[in-house]
Amino acid sequence: MCTVTFIPSKEGIFLTSNRDEKRWRSAATAPDVYALTSGRIIFPKDGDAGGSWIAIHENGNAVVFLNGGFVFHRSQPPYRRSRGLILLDLINHESPFQSFQDISLEEIEPFTAVIWESDQLYDCRWDGKNKFWENLPQDEPHIWSSATLYDEDVTSKRKSWFQEWIRKHPHPSQDEIINFHQFTGDGDTHNDLMMNRDGKVFTVSVTSASIGKQQVLMEYLDVKNSAKFEKRLNIVHPTTKA
Q1: Which domain holds residue 43?
Q2: What is the pLDDT of residues 217-232, one digit of tens each?
Q3: CATH number at residue 189
Q4: Per the domain annotation, does 240 fall within a domain?
Q5: The dihedral of CA 204, 67, 231, 50: what is its sign?
Q6: By the 8 A CB rule, do 133 and 63 touch?
Q7: Structural domain total, the chain
Q8: Is 9 contained in some domain?
Q9: By CB neighbour count within 10 A (0-12 exposed, 13-18 middle, 19+ buried), where does 229 fall?
């Protein structure tokens, strides 16, 4: 829930997330397709609360979370519900963006939600007191870094890495995007995209979703166990759904 990129392509979009977590957190399970009340949804599942940090609905909507809103905050548990379960609440709705606007977030830890819905891209934030949202250009690439781990200077440096990489890879493949998330940095392991802060907090996985008109391909790199997985989900358009 700590580094996210959005990259448009001729066939659709790519959403990719590096999950940076504390050493004591339980291992997540690789992506699978789950039947929720609104339809089939593909996501990796958190090993503690059972939520997720990235999920795509069979209707093509997608939600990705990052820890924190705009600035660093100190976690003050207990919270009423985990953010990973809030993500599933949003994606399990005909309009995740409308759901974000409507849902009660009292006693929920601050987060940033990147929402892709009906070919629109939204940056939605909860700072612990108020909600904020912005419609972003959907035909441009974007990168986000968690406010809880990366200060403004580091966030700016990571953005410059991304812009330079996009300049050299204007039409990247999914594998090239995953490589960017794995190997980009300047040797500072505290702040490289694949980060490790003295073994206490580190990148545990990279999840990349290619969302096309007909299918979602989710590729999952389990960094800790050096294992790769992939899962597919067919897109079901409202006019074709039985």
Answers
A1: 3-234
A2: 999 999 988 999 999 9
A3: 3.60.60.10
A4: no
A5: positive
A6: no
A7: 1
A8: yes
A9: middle
Tell me the Ramachandran region of residue 101: left when phi exceeds 0, alpha when psi lies from -120 to 50, beta otherwise: alpha
For 36-63, how does the pLDDT look when each residue is reduced to its tens digit (9 = 90+)? 999 999 999 998 889 999 999 999 999 9
Q: Tell me the pLDDT tens digit for each residue of 87-145.
A: 999 999 999 999 999 999 999 999 999 999 999 999 999 999 999 999 999 999 999 99
pTM above the 0.90 mark? yes
Give the integer Cα–Cα distance in Å for 133 and 58: 24
- Average pLDDT for 8-19: 96
239 occurs within a structural domain: no
Would you say residue 241 lies in a domain?
A: no
Secondary structure of the chain in HEC code, one letter for each residue: CCEEEEEECCCEEEEEEEEEEECCCCCCEEEEEEEECCEEEEEEECCCCCCCCEEEECCCCEEEEEECCCCCCCCCCCCCCCHHHHHHHHHCCCCHHHHHHHCCCCCCCCEEEEEEECCEEEEEEECCCCEEEEEECCCCCEEEECCCCCCHHHHHHHHHHHHHHHHHCCCCCHHHHHHHHHHCCCCCCCCCCCCEECCCEEEEEEEEEEEECCEEEEEEEECCCCEEEEEEEECCCCCCCC
Residues belonging to the chain: 242
Which amino acid belongs to residue 70? F
Share the mean pLDDT of the chain. 94
